[in-house]
């Protein structure tokens, strides 16, 4: 997926940046190992589209006044109500050096324990990993169909290996399990009684 975003060098800095935001232009910065820091500004609607498409793991081609950079979204500051952008930071990585980042965990699959009344628990919404910039996964899938009993837990150690990706979160970190409820305990007790009879 190719994501491009146009930006311009920014002359307005500090508190005067409020003027830009009133005009739906978001101030930002571009940093990188091999480039000088650049103050930039981006149209709010263009930034919205790019962030939605790229997240924090897809490479964005950032065009700053005709000079193109391959970048990752590093940080987005929003207003307290999360409705508007305040500031954005991009990072131009070395494409041959692994970067460390946090990637969302995406739960997939169905499970009979949930159908029976169990509650899915996902203690971690993100996972720390390292990979070359172009090998960064958009998310890590956690398949809950493998959970056979309430004592089963999917941990980082049980995730399938992904080529060129190294998990940095501790191997024992719990990612998903299904908790028993009063209803499931009651159903299990009834089942035992029926078997005993």
Automatic annotation (TrEMBL):
SUPFAM superfamilies on file: Ribosomal protein L25-like (SSF50715)
InterPro entries: Rbsml_bL25/Gln-tRNA_synth_N, Ribosomal_bL25/Gln-tRNA_synth, Ribosomal_bL25_b-dom, Ribosomal_bL25_C, Ribosomal_bL25_long, Ribosomal_L25_dom, Ribosomal_uL5_bac-type
Domain Large ribosomal subunit protein bL25 L25: 5-90
Pfam family, one: Ribosomal_L25p
Gene3D superfamilies: Ribosomal protein L25, beta domain, Ribosomal Protein L25, Chain P
Biological processes, Gene Ontology terms: translation
Keyword Ribosomal protein: yes
Family according to the record: Belongs to the bacterial ribosomal protein bL25 family. CTC subfamily.
HAMAP family: Ribosomal_bL25_CTC
Role this protein plays: This is one of the proteins that binds to the 5S RNA in the ribosome where it forms part of the central protuberance.
Subunit organization: Part of the 50S ribosomal subunit; part of the 5S rRNA/L5/L18/L25 subcomplex. Contacts the 5S rRNA. Binds to the 5S rRNA independently of L5 and L18.
Annotated PANTHER family: RIBOSOMAL PROTEIN L25/GLN-TRNA SYNTHETASE, ANTI-CODON-BINDING DOMAIN-CONTAINING PROTEIN (PTHR33284), RIBOSOMAL PROTEIN L25_GLN-TRNA SYNTHETASE, ANTI-CODON-BINDING DOMAIN-CONTAINING PROTEIN (PTHR33284:SF1)
Listed name of the protein: Large ribosomal subunit protein bL25
Organism: Lentisphaera araneosa HTCC2155
Encoding gene (name): rplY
